[in-house]
Amino acid sequence: MRHHCSCTERCNKRHYNNVAEGQSPSTNLQGDIEFRGVHFSYPSRSEVSVFNGLDLVVPSGSVTAVVGASGSGKSTLPALLMRFYDPSSGVLQIDGTSVRDFSPQWLRSHISIVHQVPAQWP
Ligand SMILES: Nc1ncnc2c1ncn2[C@@H]1O[C@H](COP(=O)(O)OP(=O)(O)OP(=O)(O)O)[C@@H](O)[C@H]1O
Ligand SMILES: [Mg+2]
Predict the structure, then answer these.
(1) By C-alpha distance, which of 27, 45, 12, 31 is closest to 99?
(2) Per the domain annotation, does 58 fall within a domain?
(3) Residue 81 in contact with residue 31, Cβ under 8 Å?
């Protein structure tokens, strides 16, 4: 169950009442990633469409570079994968299962991310 935050200022996140809710498979992730027809806007900027029917397949074990202008949606990809937000429509699957079926907590414990902080590579 999730609800929208009641604060009115700049808060734009959907909060999950229970990030453990959903499947937490004991089997290992294979890691096949598939975005099919994904539409998404951030809740606080619903007038701006970040993805308008995105299709992207990243097979397990492959290396994929996503390149695009600032603001084109690169960082939004992992945010959707880890369910900080859910797409408004379309399908986002890992190993053939919709990420909506997995608990956010489980997803986040299986995905690593290195942020674009230049100080990490002095
Ligand atoms: N938390 C947020 N709330 C509202 N809009 C957001 C939020 N995060 C990103 N956006 C908007 O969503 C769009 C995609 O942003 P995103 O951060 O995914 O781009 P990016 O390709 O990673 O850019 P950069 O190369 O600067 O890192 C932009 O228009 C951005 O302003
Ligand atoms: Mg980014």
Answers:
(1) 31
(2) yes
(3) no
Does the Cβ of 67 fall within 6 Å of ligand 1? no
Whole-prediction pTM value? 0.85
- Asked if the structure places residue 7 within a domain, the reply is no
Question: Does ligand 1 have an atom closer than 6 angstroms to the CB of 118?
Answer: no
In a domain, residue 116? The reply is: no
54 in ligand 1 pocket by Cβ < 6 Å? no
Q: Using a 6 Å cutoff on CB, does residue 76 contact ligand 1?
A: yes
Q: How many domains is the chain built from?
A: 1
Give the Å distance between the CA of 116 and the centre of ligand 2.
7
Q: What is the pLDDT of residues 60-118, one digit of tens each?
A: 999 999 999 999 999 999 999 999 999 999 999 999 999 999 999 999 999 998 887 87
* Calpha distance 110→118 (Å, rounded): 24
26 Cα to the center of ligand 1, angstroms = 33
* CB-side neighbour CA atoms (13 Å) of 105: 9
What is the structure's pLDDT at 24?
85
